[in-house]
Amino acid sequence: MALHSDTDDQQPATIIKKYANRRLYNTGTSTYVTLDDLADMVKGGEDFIVQDAKTSEDLTRSVLTQIIFEQESRGTNLLPITVLRQLIRFYDDSMNAVVPSYLEHSMNAFVADKDSIREKMSQGLGTPFGAMSGAMQEQTRRNMELFQSAMSNAMAVFSPFPTPAAAATSAEPAEAAPSNADSIDELRAQLSAMQSKLEAISRDDDR
């Protein structure tokens, strides 16, 4: 079965075999590689999937986490301590099912706007850092609004409860509509709470 890239379905992902001795083998180039080599592949836009050489278990997530750990340990710190702590807390939080989608959505939005953000940062040289921080907070707020809108649309499509319009013409009891509204309101409240947490983290970093 062919394996494809997450970002480009036309380009098959390179298979990296991981052996028991922790050696990594690139099946595309028929050479052994290091974590640094895989990091360069990521930076170059080349997708890959890491598999256990014996069981074919997907180890991509753990290897990518290793790469991030290696980069962080070398002094290039992209993940603030407050964010790392908050992520750990989310593992046992009722919001943990929403966090991955929110992070992915926010990162995709950031990547899409990175050229514009880079230009604004270059124009902001010599100005107080707080001004740039405020701009980033505004970007985060907009990302959150877009994410909330996407979640609401998804719930409207996949919800087992009828929409208000459908409820008006349905023979089902009218109580179903409030249940749908309550579910949406509850999720929106949870998303709002997560946004507040993220904004609080950002304010702590500014201090």
User: Order of helices and strands, N to C?
Assistant: EEEHEHHHHHHH
Low-confidence stretches: 169-178
Q: Separation of termini?
A: 51 Å
Morphology: globular
Provide a descriptive summary of the structure in words.
By secondary structure, the chain is α+β, with helices and mostly antiparallel strands. The chain has eight helices and four strands, in the order βββαβααααααα. Helix 1 (35-43) crosses helix 2 (60-73), helix 4 crosses helix 6 and helix 6 packs antiparallel against helix 8. Strands 3-2-1-4 form a four-stranded mixed beta sheet.
Write the layout of secondary structure elements.
Layout: E1 14-18, E2 24-26, E3 31-33, H1 35-43, E4 48-52, H2 60-73, H3 81-90, H4 99-112, H5 114-123, H6 129-158, H7 164-169, H8 176-206
Parallel strand pairs: 1-4
Antiparallel strand pairs: 1-2, 2-3
Helix pairs in contact: 1-2, 4-6, 6-8
In short:
The protein is α+β, with helices and mostly antiparallel strands. 60% of the residues lie in helices and 8% in strands.
Throw out a few tags for this protein.
globular, 207 residues, 8 helices, four-stranded mixed sheet, alpha+beta
